[in-house]
Amino acid sequence: METTLSTSYLIAIDGMHCHACERLITGTLSRVPGVTGVLADAQAGTAIITVDAEPDPAALAEAIAAAGFAPTGGTVTLVPVDDIETPAPAAAADDTCPTGACPTVPRAPDPALMAASAAAAVATATLGIIGMTCSSCQAVIERTLARTPGIGSATVNLAAETATVTFDPHTIGIDGIVTAVRDAGYDAVPRAADAAMGTGDDAQREAQQAHITHEKRLFVFSLALSFPLLILMIPALMESVPLAVAEWLAATFGGAWDPMMVFKYIGFALATPVQFIAGWQFYKGFYHALKRRTGNMDTLIAIGTSAAYFYSLAATFIPSLYMEPVFYETAALLITFVILGKLLEAHAKGKTGDAIKKLMGLAPKTARVVRDGVEVDVPVETVVAGDTVVVRPGEKVPVDGIVIDGSSAVDESMLTGESIPVEKREGDTVIGATINKLGSFRFRATKVGAETALAQIVKLVEEAQGSKAPVQRFADRISSVFVPVVVGLAVLTFLVWLFVVPRFVDPSFYMDATPFIKALLAGTAVVVIACPCALGLATPTAIMVGTGKGAENGVLIKSGEALETTYKISTIVFDKTGTLTHGTPVVTDIELAEGHDTGRVFMLAAALERGSEHPLAEAIMARAKADGIELPSVDGFAAVPGHGVEGTVDGMRVAFGNRRLMAREGIDIARFEERIAALENQGKTVMLVGVNGAKLAGLIAVADTLKAHSAEAVTRLAEIGVEVYMITGDNRRTAEAIAAQAGIPADHVLAEVLPEHKAEEVTRLQAAGRKVAMVGDGINDTPALAAADVGIAMGAGTDIAMETGGIVLITNDLRDVVTAIELSRATIRKIRQNFVWALGYNTLGIPVAALGLLKPELAGAAMALSSVSVVTSSLLLRRFRPSMAKSA
Amino acid sequence: MNRTLIRAALTIVAIGTIALAGCAPAGEAEHPTDGVWGYVTSADSAALELAADQTGATGLVVDRVLAPGDAWVVVHLDDDGAPGMRVGLASVAKGETTDLRIELEGDLTDSLIVALHADRGTPGEFDFDMESPATSPDRPYFIDGAELATVVNVR
Fold first, then answer.
1. How far is A330 from chain B (nearest CA, A)?
2. At what angle do helices A354-361 and A328-352 cross, to 10 degrees?
3. Using one digit for the tens of pLDDT, what is the confidence trace for A412-443?
4. Which of A104, A462, A664, A783 has the CB geometry, 3.0–4.6 Å to A759, for a possible disulfide?
């Protein structure tokens, strides 16, 4: 079966019932400019469109409306569909509308529909999730989605509050996935395709903001009611307030009032709204978790507060329990503190995504383009590839492109971390969102919208932040058993206090409480203190900050796994050409014979090399061009294979090549032999210039030179305990020469390795028990990058080899390799610290609570603080500074 | 008030709440008493009117009783100004009762204390334990912080 690979978006559409509806939608959508294919599915309530240009949501909405339907939610939300495979068409589908309400559409051969009718597709969508409180919630959603028919896999990120779902769009649509999440007790919103650029209608952000606003109101509401409850617990007020209220009641309504009952009624009146309005969310979560036979933070809070509240309720209204005390303030304060904790956590969590927000904020809103010969300011979304864009001093470059006129220095630090502005001339690439300094230039837009380097970086970082690091499995495993274990512990605590302690402990230990009350309070405190919320945040918050920090420094970490593996790296293998070195030979040395000058020798050599495409010739030509040397014409040009080139320049017979060419021409090079050997030992290629068949005019050495900071980076890597190897196809002498310059010992040079054997060398190092990172340019090094534990691909401006390796360096600066390792070490250290914070609260808190030494409301405050301290600890990662700052 | 002030105020209240929660008495609260350990009522709902001198009688006559609910008129010996052992008891229905006669039993002190108690326990049974008066259902009524009671000279 043949398959085609396409770029597609999924749109959720309301109102489709049958294949007639599908045909209508297909017909109207396929007429929208840029749409090359439509795959409508009435059952799933979706249409997948394949486009060859940036789709226009407004035009798509019009087309859907023209067919008599409406996009789900009223506006078109484009969900990118990755890796959609569309097999060949199969059997025709049923046209019968089950409702009978759909219009009859004549059957017409429609290739898109035919493909659609039986296609088996796999789509991936990201949803924003609202209302998660802890890692148990994450597990509930993952489990719910995994059990939903049509969903292949689902990964939920607690910190980013997203779910990445792989699904079959023929079985389930986005609305079906949203419904499944809602059934689990949470809310979900599809994330728009252009949200990555911050230009789209970010429904998730709005929904989350609305959720936080709602929580804030609940907090103020419950604090307003809980605070008087707490005040009532002050001994002096505990007596006088109920008495005053009882007197007021007697004077106002008559009758007789028992102050003790008035005290209980006040507690009931204040705590009940808190319990059932502010605390309703916990009951809802508890119910949904219970339905799925699982538990989460809501379970524990609902159990804890209900124990305190309903016991108090009984003590208030059952006459035989008249003498029993009430704990309304415990229930109300617990709910208040937990909501406060959630708010603080949301506030702190918002900051973990600051780096990505900062990246999104870099994108300029407008661009100045030349339309019909006139410069006009247009919204950046309307810029299309091929537009001529004008950039003036101080302005941001709106999209990616190639300079066609003018020159300037451009500050690319926001994307590369490189603080020195980069010179841009005609033919150079400029990247969107970078800042033009003093000059003006025009460029031709090559990549716009979601294709720009910035959009790609944002997408990549978002994906990384949504991914799970293997270390999180530890947290997930603990969380999954935590709730039942905690409930069991709480019950055990209750029983021990009720039945065991009174037998062995002096009653004075209870103070004024009865064994039952002590048991109730201790059990409640255990339930509350043991909530694993902080544990679920330990890994994802650190990864969000870590990957964001990487992006700020030009290091794109593609997944949590890559970040974690980088931490373990003990050996780094650098590709030589293009990685340690510039990858382009340059003229490094010129030695002249007596009576000759550089300009003349270069003029002779460059004139001969003018027509050649040999890399060494390019180096000579680049130097001649840079020096502004005028090249005369050549007569009688001849290339001598394996020797060099010769011809007549300005009436002189010139030979330019190696020793053998000189020997063939009978030119004596004895005087230069020592110098030639020295240069060759440095890994340089020496070419000799002979004039008139007798004299050697000079020699030109060409070499692929080490990048400015390669040696510095290698030294630093050694300092931080990473062994450095170099791998190359070059001969050993050249390889060792470059390695020596870089500070790599000769026994760590893997020379004369063919590209196809590089992966084997990496595997060999791994076999010796090392964790190996391979650093390459991502093209011919791909197998080695894939074989390594971590592949680090070197990017080059907009031409980033995004697909290769676990880490992509935006620039070709090897100091970023050091930064990547340091960052991964800092992040993993932070994750471990977070585990200590999270588990510390639980492991210390549970025994204290079980011993009856912790009041339930304080347990609630401590639990809330544990989440806040974990997120705050992750935020400290924002202070990470690479040891090799790129300011110099 | 600007947002910063509101935030600051909320923060102070929240921190104060946590601190107070930590300082609040452990376990549950004592029952509020403040000297008032019975039922609080007003002069419009409860009253006890009788002659202050009823010497030589074997019973007392209460001219008017106003009760906020079913109640007991209880006669105690005077134990140095505090109600002592019970020597007389009569039930009254909610509302006004006049010319209520209460028979007295046993040895009497020179003066007696007549008090109005609620009948909130088992109806028709005087559920009042002198050993734990504050937790008995049939506790006395209080008006303006004082027990609704009158001292009567009987000798």
1. 9
2. 40
3. 877 776 667 788 888 888 888 888 888 889 99
4. A783
Contact B20 A855 (CB under 8 A): no
Query: Which of left, alpha, beta for A209 (phi over 0: left; psi -120 to 50: alpha)?
Result: alpha
Q: E strands along A266-345, which residues?
A: none
B118 strand-pairing partners: B71
Q: Given pLDDT bands bounded at 50, 70 and 90, which one contains residue A108? A: very low
In a domain, B6, yes or no: no
Catalytic positions of A:
575
Q: Counting beta carbons within 10 angstroms of the beta carbon of residue A159, is it exposed (0 to 12), middle (13 to 18) or buried (19 or more)?
A: buried
Give me the DSSP letters along B68-79: SSSEEEEEEEEE
Q: What total of structural domains would you count in chain B?
A: 1
Q: Distance, in angstroms, between B84 CA and closest chain A CA?
A: 23
Distances (CA, A) of A549 to A364, A461, A465, A553, A815: 22, 10, 11, 7, 15
| Residue A1 burial by Cβ neighbours in a 10 Å radius (0-12, 13-18, 19+) | exposed
Tokens describing residue A761: 């060398």
CB-neighbour burial class of residue A446 (10 A; exposed 0-12, middle 13-18, buried 19+): middle
- In the sheet that B59-67 helps form, which strands lie side by side, from edge to edge? B47-50, B59-67, B95-103
With respect to residue B82, please indicate whether it lies within any of the assigned structural domains. Answer: yes
Q: pLDDT, tens digit, for every residue of A793-825? A: 886 533 445 566 788 888 878 899 999 999 999
Q: pLDDT by residue (tens digit) across B27-55?
A: 444 444 457 889 999 999 999 999 988 87
For testing the chain A interface, which of B7, B17, B44 should be mutated: the one with the most A CBs within 10 Å?
A: B17
B58 part of a folded domain = yes
Strands B111-118 and A70-71: unpaired
Residue B86 phi, psi (nearest 5) = -80, 130
Tokens, residue A462: 């978002």
A215 touches chain B (CB under 8 A): no
Provide the residue type at A658 as one letter: N
What is the rounded CA–CA span in Å between residue A733 and residue A731?
A: 6
Hey, is A139 helix, strand or coil?
helix
Q: Is residue B23 part of a domain?
A: no
Considering only CB atoms, which chain B residues are within 8 Å of A257? 39-41
CATH number at residue B64: 2.60.40
Closest to A444 in 3D by CA, of A434, A423, A430: A430
Q: Does B122 touch chain A (CB under 8 A)?
A: no
Fill in the DSSP letter of residue A775: E
Residues near A851 by beta carbon (within 8 Å), at least 6 away in sequence: A522
Long-range contacts of the stretch A264-269 (C-beta < 8 A, 24+): A264/A312, A264/A315, A264/A316, A264/A326, A264/A328, A265/A316, A266/A228, A266/A229, A266/A232, A266/A241, A266/A242, A267/A229, A267/A232, A267/A312, A267/A316, A267/A326, A267/A328, A267/A329, A268/A312, A268/A313, A268/A316, A268/A326, A268/A328
Contact A254 B42 (CB under 8 A): yes
* Closest alpha carbon within chain A to B117: A256
Question: To the nearest whole percent, how much of chain A has pLDDT over 90?
Answer: 14
Higher pLDDT, A320 or A849: A849
- Residue B64, domain extent: 39-153
Asked whether the beta carbons of A184 and A173 are under 8 A apart, the reply is: no
What is the DSSP-derived secondary structure letter of residue A452?
Answer: S
Report how far residue A791's alpha carbon sits from residue A572's, in angstroms, rounded to the nearest whole number: 10
The answer to whether the CB of A172 falls within 8 A of the CB of A150 is: yes
Distance of residue B31 Cα from the nearest chain A Cα, in angstroms:
6
Choose the closest CB to A256 out of B10, B24, B68. B68
**What is the dihedral sign for C-alpha B114, B115, B116, B122?**
negative
Q: What is the ipTM score, two decimals? A: 0.80
- Those residues whose C-beta lies under 8 Å from the C-beta of residue A306, and which sit 6 or more positions away, are A331
